[in-house]
Amino acid sequence: MDPVKNPYRPGAGLQPGTLAGREKVIEKAEILLKRVKAGAPQRSIMLYGLRGMGKTVLLNRFREIARGENYIVHLHEMSEKDDFKSVITRAFKKILLEIDRVEQAKDLLKKAFRVLKSVSLNIPEVGDVSIDLEKMTGWGDSGNFESDLVDLVESIGQAAKEYQKFVCILIDETQYIDERSLAALIAANHNVSQSNLPIVFICAGLPQILALTGDAKSYAERLFEFVKINGLSRMETMEAIVGPARNLGVLFDPEAVEELSRLTGGYPYFIQEFCKFVWDTAPREALRVTKADVLAAQAEAQNPLDDSFFKIRLDRATDGEKRLMRSMSEMGSGPYKWNDVIEKMDKASNTLSPVRASLIKKGFLYAPAYGVLDFTVPKFDDFLRRHFSRAA
């Protein structure tokens, strides 16, 4: 079929042609944003789930909704190397400059800028944020980031409320925020809720974010609505497969849909990747996709998936980390009991525990239950078995 018209869009955060099965969580975000505008506080949202489930796609959709509701919006994707103090301080500078573009030189804005300067002077990575105002004594200058962030967010919230502005902060890959900074974010969000300020935090992360937020602040579950983003159901998978093509007059045979459902496991990213190659492989003049088209495209889809989505992650692991993950994959599909992994590797627990901790921190693994591990990337065990068998 015509590759120019291909409606399938594999990629990081790219909006699919049909966003199937996510209507309820999109509605949650719409309600949250509208309630905050109406002066009615509500818990913020924390999305969590495995990689490839579409969390970033949803954050991008929420950004569109927030902009449509006239919010000032900032979206940041955290990485392992990011310092959250620097990230959030620079984000709030941009937000204040956006408010100041309309409401120049107002008193509460000046105060917020002065508090921002106070906070920035205590963060070496940021330093003086080049604001031509004196720092605000007694606000944001304690040197304790949690206290200072609460002051900063409150001052910005007061200015936004006074000038009828609304702010939405979207944070992706939240699991990369260090524990103290995560505690500061939760505390600032708590103050926003208590003071009924027009600021919304919406975050997304891997499954370990549940434990991380609980460790950072025991009351985190009362401030965030934790929404699990799963793979798609059978009906949602079918719609994600056939919907984009149907809009262009192309149909799928039932057998083709069944085969694609099996190959992708209902994981949104895999659906986009496989369907893209099925579309490009099918005869150019065809208006119907058959099972033969799917089988013909399977190898072409799997190889780039291995070389990009999977291998790019594996390349970040050390040799010791690769050995541990390889041993897990050789045990079949997860989840895996940690004691079984130790027994298979024939190593002492205190030798392997630092490797496990590093893999969790890097986002390769998570602990769905005590003493249990699993991969954060769907079908990663299948990839590891293919990869190491080829390397043998």
Give a description of the structure.
The radius of gyration is 24 Å and the shape is globular. It has 3 domains: 23-228, Rossmann fold, CATH 3.40.50.300; 232-313, Helicase, Ruva Protein, domain 3 (Orthogonal Bundle); 317-391, Arc Repressor Mutant, subunit A, CATH 1.10.10.10. The chain contains 16 helices and 10 strands. Helix 10 packs parallel to helix 12. The strands form 3 sheets. A 5-stranded parallel beta sheet has the order 2-3-4-1-5, with helices on both faces. The chain is of the alpha/beta class and 392 residues long. Strand 9 and strand 10 (372-375) form a beta hairpin. 42% of the residues are buried. It has helices at residues 23-37, 55-68, 84-102, 107-121, 145-162, 179-195, 209-216, 220-223, 234-246, 254-264, 268-281, 291-314, 319-330, 338-345, 349-362, 380-391, and strands spanning 44-48, 71-77, 166-172, 199-205, 224-228, 251-252, 288-289, 336-337, 365-366, 372-375. The mean pLDDT is 89.
